Amino acid sequence: MKLYQYLLLAALTVSTAACSNWIYRIDVPQGNFLDERDVKELRKGMSKDQVIYVLGHPVVEDSFNDDTWYYVYDMKRGMRKRGEDFQKQLILTFDNDSLVTATGDFDLSEDFETPLDQ
């Protein structure tokens, strides 16, 4: 009788593991989703208010340095068939309320170095 219970438990465990792809799991996006078109609108010399108008508020502001902003977007996929997990970052550095550099996973516009007319 004991062997029958162990075999039944093993069969139940194997069948449950085989059905794991039937469970729907949602994707979990977190952070700022940035569109490539919006990032290409950035120009050197933009004020913080202008950057907020274009990209929105950053997810993370450096506690020790108010002049560094981090835009982070993290996507955790619920199911592998919808793609791999990924993360995109954009780090903006300001000097005296003026955008100086933008680094990260986005391509900047060719006109980034051309400041806006004030």
TrEMBL record:
Phylogenetic classification of the source organism: Bacteria, Pseudomonadati, Pseudomonadota, Gammaproteobacteria, Alteromonadales
Subunit structure: Part of the Bam complex.
Signal peptide limits: 1-20
Entry membrane topology: Lipid-anchor
UniProt key word rRNA-binding: no
Protein name: Outer membrane protein assembly factor BamE
Its job: Part of the outer membrane protein assembly complex, which is involved in assembly and insertion of beta-barrel proteins into the outer membrane.
Outer membrane protein assembly factor BamE domain residues: 31-103
Main location: membrane
Family that this chain belongs to: Belongs to the BamE family.
Stored Pfam families: BamE
Compartments it resides in: Cell outer membrane
Organism: Salinimonas profundi
Entry keyword set: Cell outer membrane, Lipoprotein, Membrane, Palmitate, Signal
Keyword hit for Lipoprotein: yes
